[in-house]
């Protein structure tokens, strides 16, 4: 399962959906308390954890021959759903 590209692409789509949800929430006032809470959780997780993942992804990207710039961008957008498949050899550098 961890070697299946389609699963990782699906996970990456979820990460993009998280970013879309964050940006949507910047312009829309959620009336639902549950949606507002979910938005805050996603905002905090995406904006705190993705940058922290750089400590792991930078060596992974370097070992895989991925440029520093691409590693940073892909990690900030997709988080572990990008660097883990690179580390596992599912995605090429």
Compact summary:
With 93 residues, the protein is mainly alpha-helical. It contains 5 helices and no strands. Helices cover 80% and strands 0% of the residues.
Please write out the topology.
Layout: H1 5-27, H2 33-52, H3 54-64, H4 68-78, H5 80-88
Helix pairs in contact: 1-2, 2-4, 3-4, 3-5, 4-5
Description:
The protein has 93 residues and is mainly α. The protein has one domain. 80% of the residues lie in helices and 0% in strands. The chain contains 5 helices and no strands. Helix 1 packs across helix 2. The longest helix has 23 residues, at 5-27. The radius of gyration is 15 Å and the shape is elongated.
- Major β-sheet annotation: none
One letter per element, helices H and strands E, the order comes to HHHHH
Strand content: under 5%
* Poorly predicted parts: none
Number of strands: 0
Number of domains: 1
Q: Helicity level, as a percent range?
A: over 70%
Category from helices, strands and their pairing: mainly alpha
Between the first and last Cα atoms, what is the distance in angstroms? 20 Å
Number of helices: 5
Give the radius of gyration.
Answer: 15 Å
